[in-house]
């Protein structure tokens, strides 16, 4: 969906730019957003009716989406995405919902709690009376073989009698505390199924919500290359101005290539730093490699960014505190005192793993702080 400015719409609608800006500030133009000092309006927006007109209240009905049984951790992400699309979210628990027959909606997002039992199915059937031919229903359910495939059961009925579509998003996610989920990505999947798939009905799409699963010790399995970089992406997405990203890099040959994965890794590091995250990276290598790394592309990029780049002499650490090198291993990225994303040796078939094991994370964190006592500004070393 494209956007036009208030000035552009003044020519299209034949009213002044000042009038359009006033309408935007009064929330009378659905989907309008302010970027800096400029109002941006979805290019397909219809001209608002005169508020004095009798038909105004019909043309400017808020576009509402009912969301049922949603978990608190996902709620905010859904509200944010719907707001950007010009929709208003209303929330209820299925047991508390009343039949407000005078209310109408553009869609329903229903989180199943009982594998869609008869009461839940009846609720969805009844709610369809509040929807129109452009509406959409998304059922969010856990992926299991015993679920009631209601989207298939009701798809033809809803398509023929109302014109709306009904689909299911299956969550391939364990319901326990040993899983990290990217709720922003999960919300995007839900909204895309609700608004983007215009002509699909009766289908089920599976998502893992960018999950990262931990064993009882607080460690993931060893990831292959693709899954490892996806895990990094997902972890870095959660970082904000209050976060601390501390990293030790051993300058292994397979880490600093121009592969698409490494290129993307550099980009997300720069994005994190630009968001205001406190990022410190220690590069560990011998002095005799300083000349070799003077023109290293990755180091040049990092030194020009908001990332604090430090250098530690590998030979000095080996001589004075060799145990620190053992803790560093093949390098890692630490997040606060909560998470460690660790590389595996070059000889391994896998690329790395993620740990939230308290001892492993704190040992690495203390090691990093100790390494900083030996560190020098990388810019001074490579100038």
Structure write-up:
With 383 residues, the chain is an alpha/beta fold. It has three domains: 3-49; 64-212, Rossmann fold, CATH 3.40.50; 219-382, Endonuclease, Chain A, CATH 3.30.870. It is 37% helix and 22% strand. It has 15 helices and 18 strands. It has helices spanning 6-13, 17-25, 56-59, 72-84, 118-127, 150-161, 183-195, 225-237, 260-274, 290-293, 297-303, 314-320, 322-328, 358-372, 378-382; strands spanning 3-5, 33-35, 38-42, 64-68, 88-92, 107-111, 136-142, 165-171, 179-180, 204-207, 212-213, 244-249, 278-285, 308-313, 332-335, 339-343, 352-355, 376-377. The protein has a seven-stranded mixed sheet with strand order 17-16-15-12-13-14-18, sandwiched between helices. It has a six-stranded parallel sheet with strand order 5-4-6-7-8-10, with helices on both faces. Strands 1-3-2 form a three-stranded antiparallel sheet. Helix 4 crosses helix 7 (183-195) and helix 12 packs across helix 13. The radius of gyration is 26 Å and the shape is globular. The relative contact order is 0.08.
Please outline the major beta sheet.
7 strands, mixed
- CATH architecture verdict of the largest domain: 2-Layer Sandwich
Shape: globular
CATH fold category name of the largest domain:
Endonuclease, Chain A
Structural class by secondary-structure content: alpha/beta
Quote the distance from N terminus to C terminus.
Answer: 47 Å
- The total strand number stands at 18
Mean pLDDT: 87
| DSSP helical segment count | 15
- Taking Cα atoms only, what radius of gyration do you get, to the nearest Å? 26 Å
Percent of residues in β-strands = 15-25%
The CATH fourth-level homologous superfamily of the largest domain: Endonuclease Chain A
Share of helix, binned: 25-40%
Count of spatially separate domains: 3
Q: Briefly, what CATH class of the largest domain?
A: Alpha Beta
Unreliable stretches: none
Strand order in space, largest sheet: 17-16-15-12-13-14-18
């Amino acid at each position: 969906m494209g956007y036009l400015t208030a000035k552009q719409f003044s020519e299209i609608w034949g009213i002044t730019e000042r009038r359009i800006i006033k309408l935007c500030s009064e929330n009378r133009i659905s989907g309008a957003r302010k970027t800096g000092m400029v109002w941006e309006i979805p290019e397909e927006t219809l001209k608002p009716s005169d508020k004095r007109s009798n038909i105004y209240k019909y043309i400017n009905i808020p576009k509402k989406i009912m969301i049922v049984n949603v978990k608190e951790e996902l709620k905010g992400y859904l509200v944010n995405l719907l707001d950007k699309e010009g929709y208003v979210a209303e929330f209820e628990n299925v047991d508390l919902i009343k039949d407000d027959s005078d209310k109408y909606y553009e869609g329903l997002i229903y989180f199943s709690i009982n594998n869609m039992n008869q009461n839940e199915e009846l609720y969805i059937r009844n709610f369809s009376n509040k929807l129109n031919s452009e509406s959409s229903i998304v059922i969010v359910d856990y992926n299991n073989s015993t679920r009631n495939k209601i989207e298939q059961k009701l798809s033809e009925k809803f398509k023929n009698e109302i014109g709306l579509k009904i689909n299911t998003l299956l969550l391939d996610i364990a319901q326990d505390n040993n899983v990290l989920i990217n709720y922003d990505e999960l919300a995007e999947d839900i909204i895309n199924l609700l608004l983007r798939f215009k002509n699909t009905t009766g289908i089920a799409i599976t998502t893992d919500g960018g999950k990262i699963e931990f064993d009882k010790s607080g460690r993931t399995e060893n990831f292959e290359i693709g899954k490892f970089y996806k895990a990094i992406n997902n972890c870095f997405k959660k970082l904000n101005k209050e976060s601390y990203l501390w990293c030790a890099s051993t300058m292994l040959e397979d880490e600093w290539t121009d592969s698409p994965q490494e290129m993307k890794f550099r980009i997300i590091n720069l994005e994190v730093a630009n968001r205001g995250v406190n990022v410190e990276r220690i590069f560990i290598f011998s002095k005799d490699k300083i000349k070799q790394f003077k023109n290293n592309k990755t180091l040049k990029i990092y030194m020009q960014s908001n990332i604090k780049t430090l250098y530690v002499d590998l030979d000095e650490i080996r001589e004075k505190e060799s145990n620190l090198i053992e803790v560093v291993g093949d390098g890692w990225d630490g997040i606060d005192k909560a998470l460690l994303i660790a590389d595996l040796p070059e000889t391994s078939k896998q690329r790395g793993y993620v740990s939230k094991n308290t001892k492993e994370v704190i040992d690495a964190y203390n090691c990093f702080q100790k390494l900083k006592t030996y560190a020098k500004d990388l810019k001074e070393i490579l100038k």
